[in-house]
Amino acid sequence: MTQHRAGFVNIIGNPNVGKSTLMNAFVGEKLSIITSKAQTTRHRILGIVNGEDFQVILSDTPGIIKPAYELQASMMDFVKSAFDDADVLLYMVEVGEKALKDEHFFARIENSKIPVLLLLNKIDNTDQETLEAQVQYWQQQLPSVEIHPISALQNFNVKEVFLRILELLPESPPYYPKDQLTDKPERFFVNETIREKILIHYKKEIPYSVEIETEEFLEDDDIIRMRAVIMVERDSQKGIIIGHKGSALKRVGVEARKDLEKFFGKQVHIELYVKVNKNWRSNAAQLKRFGYNQN
């Protein structure tokens, strides 16, 4: 009889290396939001892939940065926790990258006692000669890790990496119910979908000053009614989010509704409001309220 395997597979790397794209490719659902901006992922998000004889618990973490304020420090705490409970560590880099933006994290990879797969992503954007040079570079930097060239966006070599993960997982009963897809509640995905649209459509500091709170989530047989608040740090940002005669806010609402209807598989009605929550990114109590400060 085949033994059941289960374990935590945690994905780390610098911002914009494609961690969220890989996570979604493994899970087959859009759990992590994806934009071209750095620091899109703020939380640690679990995606659970179940098979008859396995359960892979994937963890997408924020991109590694040197924190400049309290929110970013809390984001790096999520990365630290990913080192602590991993059964397999996926270290994602892209072609041309040389090291993590935090030497301490890089040292932990070098000295890791668990299997580490280095995933060299975005190989569809390079040529064979450059790719071979990159593989050689990383073999010298981290001789104990396995190197797998992939394209998360094009789904190249993703299945092969997943099969290798299954081989490395310890024998264990499942940690979560077999029908569970993630550890996050429904309101979390509402918040993240709205935040994704703000990251896409607003520039400069605006997307990084925003936090979303879904205050109402009422589900009927054929419709879900939601009310969400977009928090900003300053009055001037509130006006920018709303836009001329509410046009900018309306665009966010329309695009978020379309994505949420796909995600939940039913009609969605969403109301959006904007409030000022001064300097929330540097306020420990506010960060805890929004699920960042775990201490």
| Uncertain runs | none
Percent of residues in β-strands: 15-25%
**Radius of gyration based on Cα positions:** 20 Å
What are the secondary-structure elements, in order, as H or E? EHEEHEHEHEHHEEHHEH
Assigned CATH architecture of the largest domain:
3-Layer(aba) Sandwich
Portion of residues in helices? 25-40%
Main sheet: strand order = 2-3-1-4-5-6
Number of domains: 2
**How much is the average pLDDT?**
86
Chain oligomer state: single chain
DSSP helical segment count: 9
Structural class by helix and strand composition: alpha/beta
Q: Give the distance, in angstroms, between the N- and C-terminal Cα atoms.
A: 43 Å
Structural description of this entry:
By secondary structure, the protein is an alpha/beta fold. The chain has two domains: 5-168, Rossmann fold; 186-289, K homology (KH) domain (GMP Synthetase, Chain A, domain 3, 2-Layer Sandwich). The chain is 36% helix and 23% strand. It has a six-stranded mixed β-sheet with strand order 2-3-1-4-5-6, with helices on both faces. A three-stranded mixed β-sheet has the order 7-8-9. Helix 6 (186-201) crosses helix 8 (247-264). The longest helix is centred in the last third of the chain and has 18 residues, at 247-264. It is globular. The mean pLDDT is 86.
